[in-house]
Structure formats: C-alpha cells, structure tokens
C-alpha cells in the first residue's frame, strides 16, 4: 500500500510511514518553502521531516492545513516528523518544548517524535548537561507518547550502544532511528541492529547533502570534506545501466541521484531528500519506478570511501557523544 504515492513501511506499533519523504532542513525562506511544500504535496509527498532548529514548523503547519481545509486530504494522510533539540532533552523540558512544536505545526499530534541527539544541554545551548542520560531522555519521550501526542517515538544520531541502553529501561519500544546514511557511510551494523529490533531506519544526507557547506541561519557549520557521490565510478556505471531512453543520456546526474536513493530504499531504509525544485522533487519520487539488482547493491556496498559528513562537533566532550569513537 502507499501514502500519496510512496510505498509504506509499518512501525512496530502498526503506525504506517511512507518510505519516501521530504527533508526540510535549510528550508526557512517562507515564500520558497511554501511553494516547494505545495509542489511536493501535489506530486504526492506526504511525509515531511522537520525540527524546531529548522525554523520552518509554522510553514509546514500552514501548508498542511491549507490542504486539509480544501477537504481533499485528511490529517491521517500526512506523516509529520519533528524532533526535540538537546536544549530541551531534559525530561522536565521535553513536553513544554514539544507543545510549542504542536502549536507551530497547528496539529493535535505528530506522527513521529525524535530525540534530535543523545546529548542534553542547558537551555542556553552552549553548556552541556552531562547529568541527563539517554535512558532518561527516552523515558521523557515515552511520557509524550503515552499522552497520545506522538503516534511514534524514536531517536536521531544515537549509537547502537545508546539504543541498547534505552531499550533496557523502555516500556515503549524505539519505533524509529534517523541517522546519516549513504554510500560513504553505509551503517551496515546499525541497520542490522535496527532490523533485528524492528526499528525503522531513516537516512539523512543520502545524497551527500551538497548544501551542507552553505551557512545556515548565519552559522557556518562544520562539515567533513568528501568526494562527490555523483562522480563515484560505481554510481555512474549503475546510473548508465538504468537509463531507459536515449534522452536520459543527458540526465546522467539525475540518474545518479536516483541510484543513490534507490540504494537505500532497496536496503529497507526510508529517505528524506530535500529539494525545492519541482523537477527534482519528481525525480526523487520517481525512484519507486525501478530497483537495483543484487550486483548493483554489492558494488555500492563495496565503495571504499568511508566518511561521516555531519560531525556534530557540538557533542564533543559530552559523556553521551555518540560519535566520540570516530573523533
């Protein structure tokens, strides 16, 4: 079955989630975002991934409610994911912070609520609060879930070890995990762990996040340098194999995009690529129209370069820094 026109995956509690959605990080310009969101809904997107730090929850709420008011779509046909930033991960601060998100999104519930990181900070945003553990963060999310304000709860940027610790105290299973995942960071072990425990994985940075070097809200963020995924020989070779018409010869870049996204879908991973252009939105969604074969997957699994692009330097020094081993 599908939602919009994306295939659905089933979370362990039965709530259904589209496998393809729209990431909205760096979509904070109102006019542009509204146009892109409306185009996405018209094309068939129903999953929208946001967070308080993206500063666009209000725009997403406004566009969704515009479509609901037209009467063609019901709220349950949308899947909205938002997150709780480290400054509000203290169990006492989670609910009031999340209620702000609900107000901005203008919705009685979200479909998925994630702890944006495993690290808790003081409200000032600069000071780590090392006293809050991932177990406590998880117990805070469970309270929100039990109030019915989130249809599912999950984690983002957590390690296997942290998920394991949360699971040991959990009364509600971890429904979903969002992590950086792409051909240069395939996350084999984490994906296997999640499959074993019925945790749905969503990838961010699936295309190498070309926009990651653009200052965001005036901040120049720290990102690792990396080769261009679209020039990776294995990707180009597979893209050429799947061109379906001679006209697509000139669209090899578009096909490379599709190969990189299809690689994740064929591994059972959900994707939330960001785009503001109607043509790219459509191309990203059209990945449902073909599959990679086992040889393609093997080739992409064997791409030698291994690199995390989003280093989340702000976690450095926190006892719950999930990337500490890689620094």
UniProtKB/TrEMBL annotation:
Residues folding into a coiled coil are none
Q: What is a single Pfam family found in this protein's UniProt entry?
A: Aldo_ket_red
| Domain NADP-dependent oxidoreductase: residue ranges | 20-302
SUPFAM superfamilies tied to this protein: NAD(P)-linked oxidoreductase
Q: Which residues form the active site?
A: 54 (proton donor)
Name the Gene Ontology molecular function terms of this record. Answer: oxidoreductase activity
Where are the residues marked Lowers pKa of active site Tyr as a site?
83
Q: Which InterPro entries match?
A: AKR, Aldo/ket_reductase_CS, NAD(P)_OxRdtase_dom_sf, NADP_OxRdtase_dom
> Which of this chain's residues are annotated to bind substrate?
116
Listed Gene3D superfamilies: NADP-dependent oxidoreductase domain
Q: Which PANTHER family match?
A: ALDO/KETO REDUCTASE
Protein name, please? NADP-dependent oxidoreductase domain-containing protein
Read off the lineage from the record.
Eukaryota, Metazoa, Ecdysozoa, Nematoda, Chromadorea
